[in-house]
Amino acid sequence: MPATTLGAVAGIPTDPDRDCPLCPRLVDYRHAVRARDPQGWNSPVPSFGRSDAALLIVGLAPGVNGANRTGRPFTGDYAGELLYATLIEFGFATGQFLARPDDSLTLQDCRITNAVRCVPPQNKPLPVEITTCRPFLIATMETMPRLRAIVLLGRVAHDTMLKTLGIRAVLAPFAHGAVHDAGRFKLYDSYHCSRYNTNTRVLTPEMFHSVFARVKADLAEV
Ligand code: URA
């Protein structure tokens, strides 16, 4: 799989402005949610974790009652419960996860971002919104000199990463537990840790753990 060059995004910051105007539908939705909950974050959610991390986890988009409310990825809704418990178990996070951004949770050699930084209606970003937000993902990766492992939570994260890296979809089909070599990166596919996937046992904690066990083992290799 030869292509791993990131697209040029000169001048694009790693995180959108708090009032990012780029996706009109998401701006309208943000304003509607803000009117209902003026105390919430209600803005694009920045990545969480240090830029010198070796592991990047890419989610879908902020949940309306989670990251969009608290301002930290996967914080405050169901999806974060399994994710952060797993990261603590595998040493990618320390401290206590209390589902609020002022808990003591600290990521270790790990950063978390989303394919789309603004909360979308029904958790479903449009293809054009995923494309519009991709430069922020690229800029985020470009600021991570030690990046080696990328966990992709769900198909949207997988697809946007293939486009980011210029990899043809037929060469790297999405499957839970699949690992794709992408030059200096390894891509690890996982079903998204959403409430729906975990309640229906599409994704069990054991299945999720096995992805991070593999990442941990691969990162331990020199
Ligand atoms: N919260 C996030 O930040 N991202 C997701 O993909 C789901 C919930």
Q: What does this protein structure show overall?
A:
The structure is a single chain. This protein is an alpha/beta fold and 222 residues long. The protein has one domain: Uracil-DNA Glycosylase, subunit E (3-Layer(aba) Sandwich), CATH 3.40.470.10. The protein is 35% helix and 13% strand. It is built from seven helices and seven strands, in the order αβααβββαβαββαα. Strands 4-1-5-7-6 form a five-stranded mixed beta sheet, sandwiched between helices. It has a two-stranded antiparallel sheet with strand order 2-3. The protein is globular. The site of uracil (URA) has 12 residues, from loops.
Brief rundown of the structure:
With 222 residues, the protein is of the alpha/beta class. The protein is built from 7 helices and 7 strands, in the order αβααβββαβαββαα.
